[in-house]
């Protein structure tokens, strides 16, 4: 009788473990993480042309994130520190509404992500060896950054290499450009536009420069170009 009851107990315990694993929907992230870092396991993957939408599990909470399109599979573990919260977001490509989704800017497969200051997302990593033929009548990033008060609320023309591009966040596209110049640690200009470019393009942007813009969720910029038009776009990527 004892053996029979013990066998039944083991069967119930085994079933409970399997069910618990299914409910988690992915590998748990159990290691101690630095403050501000999130570790999530992937439950569901939905691919589109520009973004990979992921349902993830963090501790006991399931939610959706979006990252720039890349190969991800259920069970993968990702880490991030930088995400923009979007409520009632509608994906035109999926024709789907997300009551809450986070657009993650710095997904990584490793928790060792280097220096993650809370405003690290407002600049992109510096690219070396950039050579840009600057547009006539335009300004370099060094000129803009070193004389930002002069350029505040003025229309500015600038040409640079697109080093980062995020589409359709808060109703606009977000571009980071560099032109090989800068002022100290300021070498990367964020631009908002309705136009579409690609990382690796060289393009001319004309827009209005604003200072001290705060879009919430930690997205604060000392200087930003808004409502820009992109012209003379040249792809630097192989055909």
Describe, in plain words, how this protein is organized in 3D.
With 239 residues, the protein is mostly beta strands. It contains 3 helices and 11 strands. The chain has a 6-stranded mixed β-sheet with strand order 4-1-2-3-6-5, with no helix packed on it. A 5-stranded mixed barrel has the order 7-8-9-11-10. Strand 1 and strand 2 (51-58) form a beta hairpin. The chain is elongated and about 55 Å long. Residues 2-6, 8-26 and 114-121 have low confidence and may be disordered.
State which percent range the strand residues make up: 35-45%
Task: Give the CATH class of the largest domain.
Answer: Mainly Beta
- The side-by-side strand order for the widest beta sheet comes to 4-1-2-3-6-5
> What is the number of strand segments?
11
Uncertain stretches: 2-6, 8-26, 114-121
At the fold tier of CATH, the topology name of the largest domain is: OB fold (Dihydrolipoamide Acetyltransferase, E2P)
SSE pattern: HEEEEEEHHEEEEE
Helices and strands: which structural class?
Answer: mainly beta
Oligomer: single chain
